[in-house]
Design a protein that fits this description.
Length: about 100
């Protein structure tokens, strides 16, 4: 999420993955994929830089996660180390509420 400022000064978080386009009309108008529009006080280049920094931070975090050694999970600590005792992933059904 990135923080942007409405024309009235209130700040809100916006998911940049949902942005379809950004127009300068002369106010900056952000249009989401569902057609929702927000008028923000940041300029188009400022908005684009915010999105760029957000995405770069995601890539950097993913890179750090790949280089860190895997930590054992709670369930793997309780199992023995024998190859015959490896546990397969299990799918648990979710029960839906009746409406």
């Amino acid at each position: 999420m990135i923080l942007v400022t409405r024309i009235n000064g209130s700040v809100f978080a916006l998911n940049p993955d949902l942005v379809e386009r950004v127009d300068c009309t002369p106010d900056t108008v952000v249009t989401l994929v569902d057609g929702t529009k927000y008028i923000i006080s940041e300029s188009v280049p400022e908005f684009v830089d915010s999105v760029r920094h957000y995405r770069a931070s995601l890539i950097a975090q993913a890179s750090r996660m790949e280089t860190e050694p895997a930590t054992p999970t709670h369930s793997s600590l309780a199992t023995s180390s024998s190859a015959d005792d490896e546990i397969d992933a299990k799918v648990l059904p979710l029960h839906r509420k009746e409406r």
